[in-house]
Specification:
518 residues, alpha/beta, 9-stranded mixed beta sheet, 5-stranded parallel beta sheet, 36% helix, binds zinc ion
Length: 518
């Protein structure tokens, strides 16, 4: 049956896929035709109703689920090449591997190759938008140009922030200063150290914010973490974000050590970092707090009150012994929850299916009382909540007319989906990425039949192989340096894990501060 005129300007028709549209039952989504005109979704109607002429590109989406493209709301392209290098490492020790200043400056070829590879992995696992919180240290314009070139060539959408700070790493970790002999202190600096660093935020404002960003790129700001940034820098950040209405991403309470640091250094705010941010006027809907594992109930309420969102990264949080975010409490308070896959050296995989599955499983162990079903919540976190956090919620993250045509098609002719008792639960609990077949960004088919269309994948793998010998040499040098620090790292970690703290974050950990009432 073909009885509706196709919307004017239609360039691509997805025929008869089962689409996760906003009002549909995501356990049993309906078959629809989706018309795409240029970069936008032009119309959606029941399957086989749209009549297209022969010149139109048609994708047969029968036996496919059509999803809004995933938004990877926390990602760092700088350590893509370090995937699979580390196993269980506490966060504070891990930071010494993840791009410390002791790395020699990277070549343009390496920066370009790693950016391409990361974008390829993200697209092939169904992500259409990534929030790249990139450390370029020291900042060089040629590196920035290589990153932008790679993103333009691949065709993924990017919410891009440079990471910056103005406090030294050693000052921001509990017990480091008095555990390590002073001659070792210079080895404890981590990325985004202030010296050798340009005034990135000023540079960014003058060079980037005024002209239009490149296609599919939107700008964001990336203060590394509040304890690594002075109040003045945090305030400057939020003022700029408000002036240009752009999002801000930062790291909050990832580890027990970060919570302890707040308790030890912020007596004027009862040791609560979110109270500090509230007092500084930084809490805002534009602000996204990556991790947020060690939030207290009072702090969660403050986030809800100000519309500030969190971005959970369960893979890295587990590998780095950080703990389990209070997912159910965040949900009950109405805090926006996005999902990310974080660094490759701590999460290894840029895979939203893994992140969604862990989200649902950790929600279950974050509260001893059985809670609501979580599969649809995980899908919403991986799509629309990430888009909203990026200030793009009115154009991204949903399959609806007028929204950007950023779509992922999952092939359901696979044991994963047989029988399909629930599309949402199959996607979250069973699918691991094998089904991602076509990915559309800005109305263009960027992945077709599981292959990148825009750049020859073989050339990306070759470009990576070409830079790996140097990367491996440098990573080995850094690893040897960390190994020398290991006895003191272990001692400091033991002190962090055994110092008294008023909340805990193990399975069934309470989000209450000790002594506080529910
Ligand atoms: Zn991160």
């Amino acid at each position: 049956m073909s009885d509706e005129p196709i919307p004017a300007g239609t360039t691509l028709l997805l025929r008869a896929g089962r689409a996760l549209t906003p009002g549909a039952d995501w356990h049993d989504p309906p078959q629809v035709d989706i018309a795409v005109a240029g970069d936008r979704i032009a119309g959606i109607c029941p399957a086989y109703r749209l009549e297209g002429d022969r010149s139109l590109e048609v994708i047969d989406a029968r036996n496919h689920l059509v999803l809004p493209g995933f938004v990877n709301a926390h990602y760092h392209s700088h350590d893509i090449l370090a995937k699979g290098t580390l196993e269980e490492v506490p966060l504070e020790s891990w930071r010494l591997y993840a791009l410390p200043p002791q790395y020699p400056p990277r070549s343009v070829e390496e920066v370009y190759a790693r950016t391409l590879l990361g974008a390829l992995e993200c697209l092939r696992s169904g992500m259409t938008t990534i929030q790249d919180m990139l450390t370029l240290y020291p900042y060089e314009e040629r590196h920035m140009a290589a990153v932008m070139k790679a993103y333009q060539e691949v065709g993924i959408r990017v919410v891009f922030a440079l990471q910056y700070a103005d406090r030294k790493g050693i000052e921001t970790v509990p017990f480091w200063k008095d555990t390590f002999p002073s001659e070792l202190h210079p080895l404890l600096s981590t990325a985004a150290e202030p010296e050798r660093q340009l005034d990135l935020i000023g540079h960014f404002e003058t060079t980037r914010l005024k002209p239009e960003p490149p296609a599919r790129v939107s700008w964001a700001l990336g203060p590394s973490a509040p304890e690594r940034c002075s109040p003045a820098l945090m305030q400057r950040t939020i003022e700029l974000a408000r002036r240009y209405d752009i999002p801000v991403y930062t790291h909050i309470y990832e580890s027990r050590g970060m919570a302890l640091q707040a308790r030890l250094t912020l007596p004027e705010y009862s040791g609560l970092l979110i109270r500090r941010l509230a007092a500084e006027g930084v809490l805002d809907p534009r602000l996204n707090l990556a991790h947020s594992v060690w939030l207290s109930r009072e702090e969660i309420d403050l986030l809800a009150e100000h519309g500030t969102g969190v971005v959970l990264n369960p893979q890295g949080n587990l590998k780095m012994k950080c703990g389990i975010a209070p997912i159910r409490t965040l949900q009950d308070a109405g805090v926006r929850i996005g999902l990310g896959c974080d660094n490759c050296s701590c999460s290894d995989a840029q895979n939203m299916f893994m992140a969604m599955k862990l989200f649902t499983l950790l929600a279950a162990v974050s509260d001893p009382i059985p809670g609501p079903p979580q599969a649809v919540a995980a899908l919403r976190a991986a799509t629309e909540a990430g888009a909203e956090g990026a200030r793009l919620g009115d154009t991204l993250g949903r399959i609806a007319p007028g929204f950007k045509a950023d779509l992922t098609l999952i092939d359901t002719r696979d044991p994963t989906f047989s029988p399909m008792n629930s599309a949402a639960r199959a996607l979250v609990h069973i699918e691991a990425g094998r089904g991602v077949r076509h990915v559309i960004v800005d109305g263009k088919v960027v992945v077709r039949d599981r292959q990148l269309e825009t750049v020859d994948e073989t050339t990306i793998y070759q470009a990576v192989e070409a830079v790996m010998p140097q990367f491996r040499r440098d990573f080995a040098t850094i690893s040897q340096r960390v190994a020398k620090l290991q006895p003191w790292l272990d001692r400091a970690h033991h002190r962090i894990m055994t110092a008294e703290l008023d909340i805990e974050r193990l399975p069934f950990g309470s989000s209450q501060r000790r002594g506080a009432s529910a």
